[in-house]
Design brief:
two-stranded antiparallel sheet, mainly alpha, 10 helices, three-stranded antiparallel sheet, rod-shaped
């Protein structure tokens, strides 16, 4: 910032001079008006900092998202303007570590993060300008009026120049913050609209199913028990899961909306499923992993072919993604 914001120039104002009342004049009234204007501008900056800090990032189970967001607003409300300015640099201008979803979840997990992609030079510049603005706000609120009242004749000309320079810097910062707030809020609206749409609901349910322990186990079994042609028997998967992790087979309809493992395989969109004819006239279901699914099997000491019940593999979703949410 080029214009100093912590003084009014020269030695016209003296902090140690005995404060005395001043008669009202048009010039002095204008100084007081501009003080009020600047206070309002600073409050607008602080409100935007609170909004960015409280809502730029939120993650959690879908049913708890509103509660978590309100808790963040409450926590941010108690922070000073300086704390808010510093936190915004680390949480919005610098990308935070990737958020990790818990291994075990019982409902869809939703996340939103907004950040500004920029370089280190701009981050440093913004940080310095924001710190100067915080100092200017503190000077106006705590020190300016006593200095001005104690000055000889309450130097209106110097005070007005000081207040106008302060306003100009504040408006520049307001324009910057408004741009970020507008972009972030639009991204959140788009995400909310998508999640409320039929396709959004389908994607939420699909994501929950694809990230489940049961689907991970089906994937590992398909890899470890596949025939030379790449297909695995569904009956093998059913027997292994029933033996090693029977709880995974309970209440499939209630938990996943499907009555059996074949329905799970078809709905997950990670598997090719086929019914093979048998010589006796019957049929059997076989399945294999398709190119939308990748699996990293946990390394264990046991050499047996069924380790999915002992260690949850890491499942990477390849194409099942929602529209960008502001990052």
């Amino acid at each position: 910032m080029q214009t100093p914001l912590n003084h009014m120039g020269g030695n016209a104002l003296n902090d140690t001079t005995q404060s005395r009342g001043l008669e009202r004049t048009p010039e002095r009234d204008e100084v007081l008006r501009r003080i009020g204007r600047n206070v309002v501008n600073f409050q607008m900056v602080e409100a935007m900092l609170k909004h960015l800090n409280a809502t730029a990032s939120v993650h959690g189970p879908a049913s708890q998202l509103a509660e978590r967001l309100e808790a963040q607003r409450t926590a941010v409300h108690r922070r000073t303007m300086g704390e808010l300015a510093g936190r915004m640099v680390t949480h919005v201008l610098q990308a935070p570590p990737e958020h990790q979803t818990p291994d075990e979840i019982s409902e869809p997990w939703v996340g939103f993060h907004f950040s500004v992609e920029t370089d280190a030079q701009f981050i440093d510049q913004h940080d310095q300008e924001m710190r100067a603005l915080v100092d200017a706000r503190n000077d106006l609120i705590h020190h300016f009026l006593p200095r001005w009242n104690s000055a000889v004749d309450g130097d209106a000309e110097a005070a007005l120049a000081y207040l106008d320079a302060q306003r100009d810097e504040t408006l520049r910062m307001l324009d910057r913050l408004k741009g970020w707030v507008t972009t972030m809020d639009e991204g959140r609206k788009q995400l909310a609209a998508f999640l409320a749409s039929p396709e959004g609901e389908r994607q939420m349910e699909l994501g929950f199913l694809q990230g489940s322990h049961l689907v991970a186990m089906l994937g590992e079994i398909a890899l470890k028990t596949a025939r030379p042609d790449g297909w695995a028997y569904l009956t093998t998967a059913l027997n292994l899961i029933r033996s090693k992790a029977p709880d995974e087979l309970e209440d499939l309809q209630k938990r996943y909306g499907h009555q059996n493992l074949k329905g799970i395989l078809l709905a997950a969109e990670y598997f090719d499923v086929m019914d093979e004819a048998l010589p006796n006239g019957g049929s059997r279901t076989v399945y294999r992993i398709n190119d939308r699914y990748t699996l990293q099997i946990g390394q264990g000491d046991a050499p047996d072919q069924m380790s999915a019940a002992k260690a949850l593999p890491v499942v990477n979703q390849i194409e099942n993604s929602c529209p960008a949410s502001g990052r």
